[in-house]
Design goal:
This protein has 378 residues and is α/β, with parallel strands linked by helices. It contains 13 helices and eight strands. It is globular, with a radius of gyration of 23 Å.
């Protein structure tokens, strides 16, 4: 198995060698595509920073990379018509959610309510980018489809027939269940939440900037090419085209060097599937008539985020613990992830002792102490 952490994203020759290391006759084509994705993502005119929404590692790397690169503009994968909410976010304490609601989109069904929700936590890369932009007076520009455009396209492609048209954005989980099942089985985890928290989060936290980007480009390419069904992939393509068009318009209108900008997006959007990817074109802005929307920032909760992203209960709260532990770690620091702690082990050891006594075994408090001591000697 290839160790992605051992490969520098700047060493293209090593990336190409990945094909020989992990491909066989049946997988060589898709492997070639993935390696091509990694190389093209690296060569983008705009510096691409892929993130996983509500990921401690992504939030920390976002902070650190922004401090290192000091961009002139930060582009963010977020509905463009939520732009005016940015200045209000500094008055809020996460978890919160950008929210938009419409009481009837004429082109769909005037009788159906449409809503859009994008939750943010302290450990959201997007939230950290917004805070950085506000602090340093740097423009933070939302470049994704407007709430209405996304819902209209979603209904067109996915044939939504629900009572309400609802978009809850930010889920990194692939849409193909068989892909997720295979991923979970081959990583000895029980579900996607556990895979991300125990496998990816640990690896990303320990990575340097180049390794982090490489791993996220790799996982984004893998998910985009194999993890989504056809209609979901079409929606992602449509959004990517819109985002790169909006980036191009802003860069051209303001005369900015694209190399001085950063694009923060979900890992699945950091993949060169559409021809517009990574290039500044001569796109022009078009006026689009939309219905009347109401915008605001709502309180959220970790339990609500777990439910929105189909996470196991407690997943987001567990991420907050990781955030509290690692948010102050400096770049280059050696990080050792250990899921066990003294606080967890001692009560566990004491409970074993109590259970042994209850069932008549000869034991003592010393047994509990011994377990703790053995743990620290290992």
């Amino acid at each position: 198995m290839v160790d992605l952490q051992s490969i520098s994203i700047d060493n293209i020759a090593q990336l190409k060698k990945l094909v020989d290391d992990i491909a066989d006759a049946d997988t060589s084509v898709i492997t070639q595509d993935i390696i091509s994705d990694l190389i093209e993502a690296k060569q983008s005119e705009v510096y691409i920073l892929p993130v996983a929404h509500h990921s401690v590692a992504s939030a920390i790397k976002t902070q650190q990379i922004l401090e290192k690169r000091k961009p002139s503009v930060i582009f963010v994968e977020m509905a463009s018509d939520l732009q005016d909410l940015i200045q209000d976010i500094k008055e809020c304490e996460p978890p919160v959610a950008f929210n938009a609601i419409n009481y009837g989109i004429a082109s769909l069904d005037p009788q159906k309510v449409s809503s859009f929700k994008a939750p943010l936590t302290d450990f959201s890369g997007e939230y950290q980018a917004i805070l950085y932009g506000i602090k340093h007076k740097i423009p933070v520009i939302f470049v994704d489809l407007s709430c209405e455009a996304r819902i209209v396209k979603m209904v067109e492609l996915l044939d939504a027939k629900q009572k309400e048209f609802i978009v809850e954005t930010g889920d990194i989980k692939p849409s193909r269940n068989e892909f997720v099942s295979t991923l979970v089985q081959n990583t000895s985890t029980n579900n996607f939440s556990e895979f991300w928290l125990n496998v990816m989060e640990s690896s990303l936290l320990a990575a340097n900037f180049g390794q982090y980007r490489l791993q996220m480009f790799f996982i984004g390419s893998l998910f985009r090419r194999l993890g989504h069904d056809h209609r979901e992939s079409q929606l992602l393509d449509f959004r990517d085209q819109a985002m790169w068009k909006n980036i191009s318009i802003y860069v051209n209108d303001h005369g900015i060097n694209p190399n001085d900008t950063i694009f923060i997006c979900g890992a699945s959007h950091a993949v060169p599937v559409v021809k517009e990817f990574g290039r500044i074109s001569n796109s022009t802005k078009q006026r689009v008539k939309t219905s009347k929307w109401h915008y605001g920032i709502l309180n959220s909760s970790y339990a609500e985020i777990d439910q929105q992203f189909n996470e196991y209960p407690g997943t987001t709260a567990e991420k907050e613990k990781l955030w509290g532990t690692y948010k102050s770690v400096k770049p280059g620091s050696k990080i050792t992830i250990n899921n066990f702690s003294y606080d967890k082990l001692l009560p566990w050891a004491v409970d074993i002792t109590k259970l042994a006594r209850k069932h008549g075994y000869i034991t003592s408090t010393a047994d509990a102490i011994a377990i703790v001591d053995i743990y620290y000697k290992l």
